[in-house]
């Protein structure tokens, strides 16, 4: 019995490894950045479903697609409705694995492995190697399926196990629970379906008993999205809840009409091919469930928002003010660009402020916020630069042209300010983890310097927004004060080190902090000089 059990575990391992090889090979062979495909998704729900299905079919893992989707929603790149559309598509895409393994290719396993290995070894181009990896992965996957089938074969002679399996047909809730638990433990819905097909192939479970298990399999796969959303914003949490509700409600509907569903599957499947019947049942459930939900997406989204109340705190990575339709009118396009640049500057300045506050009093949430939102500044810098680059091809007045050049430089300075905000947040985390302690005098100096830096950067952004040279002059003055005070702190710090009133490790960290704060001020000074026209 132990030999069969170990053979079963080995079969699962080979199945999952083969599936991973296939997914990696397909993803590399595709050549496109799948995340970029999802980011480019339009607001059309059907397009989201299609993209979710295609991306999941390429990745060979619905969990990867759902985690990616939760991340994009958390970043503000996708709305709740768009994210839910991708999730529905992911459920359809993941059935591709079951359709592949339903083919009876046990006689060609060794050929697939040999051809895949040889192609991967001898192919001169990378695409050929990746396709060889796909074939090799599929061969290993089928080998794992064959091992699982042989390992469960003796179970046909155990009345207790056969009796337990037979309850799935009369008690669908038991089958759903078993499928859910199996998928949660294995962390792969495709592997659970593979086990189900292997058992059905040995006559251990009929279609009526397999359907509740595959329904539970769909519920169990939601755990990936739930785990990914635990530390995400409220909208990402709603995506995870929508995923769970989608599969749970669908399972309830299909269990209620189980008799008719079985007849539909039998009608579209070969009569003696239980593997194909299970694969078709898996595909039919997810396709029909998606079609049932699509007309009611808007009220369903509202229900999810009520069940998971709270204010959406996500910040969009996409520009809020930029409008390409206005590029033909440079003066209006310029005013929109200024608003977006100032918005970007305020986001970068907030990162700096939170990083400085976390240095004074450690706050993991503030550090997390900065590290998650610094990419927003980077993304805005790229989009604003692209917008301004397109604008440069239009005819502009001398004043608008000068403002245009200044904004391009300001974007770069603001992006660097955001980078320093990220550095300060990482330093704050390091100070806490390494138990670095500053003297009270040093702490007060850092606090005062941070207030001066924030004041200077705030005035620089105000000058940029209003195009006011007087405010710019004030900002430059404040930046000079930061420079002088930073030098004074450095001298005081060296005195404390010489008098052994300061820990050398803390002293080194202090110098790094001073450098970052001064550079924030330097970039703010650049912005002020841009407004003055003296940069």
Structural description of this entry:
The protein is mainly alpha-helical and 535 residues long. 81% of the residues lie in helices and 0% in strands. The mean pLDDT is 81.
Secondary structure topology:
Layout: H1 2-30, H2 34-39, H3 45-59, H4 62-74, H5 80-93, H6 95-101, H7 109-122, H8 126-152, H9 159-170, H10 172-186, H11 189-201, H12 207-220, H13 223-229, H14 234-256, H15 258-268, H16 274-293, H17 297-307, H18 330-360, H19 364-391, H20 398-433, H21 440-466, H22 469-498, H23 504-532
Number of contiguous helices: 23
Instruction: Encode the helix/strand succession as letters.
Output: HHHHHHHHHHHHHHHHHHHHHHH
Catalogue the unreliable spans.
none
Q: What separation lies between the terminal Cα atoms?
A: 80 Å
* Share of residues in helices: over 70%
Radius of gyration: 30 Å
Mean pLDDT equals 81
Q: What global shape is seen?
A: elongated
Which structural category fits the helices and strands? mainly alpha
Fraction in beta strands:
under 5%
Kindly state the number of beta strands: 0
Main sheet makeup: none
In short:
With 535 residues, the protein is mainly alpha-helical. The protein is built from 23 helices and no strands.
What are its keywords?
single chain; 535 residues; mainly alpha
């Amino acid at each position: 019995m132990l030999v069969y059990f170990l053979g079963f575990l080995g079969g699962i391992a080979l199945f999952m490894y083969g599936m991973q090889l296939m997914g990696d090979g397909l993803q590399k062979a595709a050549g496109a950045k799948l995340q970029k495909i999802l980011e480019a998704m339009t607001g059309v729900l059907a397009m989201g479903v299609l993209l979710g299905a295609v991306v999941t079919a390429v990745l060979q893992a619905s969990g990867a697609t759902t985690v990616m989707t939760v991340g994009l929603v958390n970043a503000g790149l996708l709305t709740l409705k768009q994210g839910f559309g991708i999730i529905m598509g992911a459920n359809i895409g993941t059935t591709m694995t079951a359709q592949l393994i339903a083919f009876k290719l046990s006689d060609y396993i060794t050929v697939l492995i040999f051809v895949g290995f040889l192609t991967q070894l001898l192919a001169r181009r990378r695409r050929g190697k990746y396709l060889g990896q796909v074939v090799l992965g599929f061969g290993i996957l089928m080998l794992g399926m064959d091992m699982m089938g042989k390992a469960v074969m003796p179970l046909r002679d155990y009345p207790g196990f056969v009796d337990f399996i037979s309850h799935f047909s009369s008690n669908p809730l038991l089958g759903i629970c078993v499928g859910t638990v199996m998928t949660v433990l294995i962390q792969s819905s495709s592997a659970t379906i593979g086990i189900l097909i292997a058992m059905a192939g040995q006559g251990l479970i009929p279609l009526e008993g397999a359907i509740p298990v595959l329904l539970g399999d769909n519920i169990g796969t939601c755990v990936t999205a739930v785990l990914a959303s635990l530390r995400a914003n409220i909208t990402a949490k709603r995506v995870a809840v929508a995923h769970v509700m989608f599969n749970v409600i669908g399972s309830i509907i299909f269990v209620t009409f189980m008799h008719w569903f079985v007849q539909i599957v039998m009608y579209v499947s070969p009569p003696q091919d239980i593997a194909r019947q299970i694969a078709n049942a898996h595909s039919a459930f997810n396709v029909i469930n998606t079609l049932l939900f699509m007309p009611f997406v808007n009220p369903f989204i509202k229900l999810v928002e009520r069940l998971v109340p709270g204010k959406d705190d996500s910040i969009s990575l996409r520009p809020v003010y930029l409008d390409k339709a206005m590029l033909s009118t440079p003066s209006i396009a310029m005013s929109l660009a200024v608003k977006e640049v100032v918005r970007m500057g305020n986001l970068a300045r907030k990162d700096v402020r939170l990083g400085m506050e976390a240095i004074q009093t450690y706050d993991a949430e503030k550090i997390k916020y900065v590290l998650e939102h610094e990419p927003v500044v980077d993304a805005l810098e790229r989009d604003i630069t692209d917008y301004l680059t397109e604008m440069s091809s239009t005819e502009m007045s001398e004043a608008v042209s000068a403002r245009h050049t200044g904004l391009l430089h300001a974007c770069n300075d603001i992006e660097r300010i955001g980078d320093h905000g990220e550095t300060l947040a990482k330093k704050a985390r390091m100070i806490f983890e390494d138990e670095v302690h500053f003297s009270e005098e040093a702490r007060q100096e850092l606090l005062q310097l941070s207030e001066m830096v924030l004041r200077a950067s705030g005035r620089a952004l105000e000058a940029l927004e209003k195009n006011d040279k007087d405010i710019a002059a004030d900002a430059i003055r404040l930046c000079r004060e930061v420079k002088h005070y930073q030098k004074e702190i450095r001298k005081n710090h060296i005195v404390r080190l010489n008098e052994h009133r300061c820990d050398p490790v803390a002293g080194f960290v202090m110098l790094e902090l001073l450098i970052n704060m001064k550079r924030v001020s330097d970039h703010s000074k650049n912005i002020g000089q841009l407004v003055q026209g003296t940069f």
